Amino acid sequence: MKNTALRILNPFIGLLVCSQAATGLLSDHLPAKVFETVHEGGGILPVTGIALHVILNFGWIKNNLLKRPQTRA
Ligand code: HEM
After folding, report:
1. Mind listing the pLDDT tens digit of every residue in the chain (73 residues)?
2. Residue 53 · residue 10 · CB < 8 Å
3. Does any domain span residue 72?
4. Which of 42, 49, 50, 55 has the fewest CB atoms below 10 angstroms from its CB?
């Protein structure tokens, strides 16, 4: 279930980040309305997607990054 959600979510995050980068870097050549709608308005989408990605992977983060190293007896 979680893996299915990540399989759908991850490509969307990839596309949304590319869209932010492209519209941000090309902003001078885009109509103001397009920049406002896609970059400024749509900026919340990759941020939300990344937050969801971290939440869905929190088990991995806890096990691999937040666990104290085991000490040998
Ligand atoms: C790879 C990611 C991003 C790149 C390369 C990028 C690049 C840029 C650039 C170059 C500008 C200035 C455009 C101009 O004034 O001509 C800009 C403006 C802006 N960006 Fe991004 N951006 C990125 C991600 C985001 C995200 C994730 C958000 C929102 C959460 C966002 C929100 C905005 C807003 C609101 C402005 C307008 C700021 C203003 O009014 O001066 N950007 N971005």
Report:
1. 899 999 999 999 999 999 999 999 999 999 999 999 999 999 999 999 999 999 999 999 999 999 887 787 6
2. yes
3. no
4. 55
Expressed in angstroms and rounded, the spacing between residue 45 Cα and the centre of ligand 1 is 13
Q: Which domain holds residue 11?
A: 2-63
Does 28 contact ligand 1 (Cβ within 6 A)?
A: yes
Q: Is 21 in the pocket of ligand 1 (CB under 6 A)?
A: yes
Number of domains in the chain: 1
DSSP string, the chain: -HHHHHHHHHHHHHHHHHHHHHHHHTGGGS-HHHIIIIIIITTHHHHHHHHHHHHHTHHHHHHHTSSPPPPP-
Residue 57 domain flag: yes
Domain contains 73? no
Closest C-alpha to ligand 1, atom 30: 43
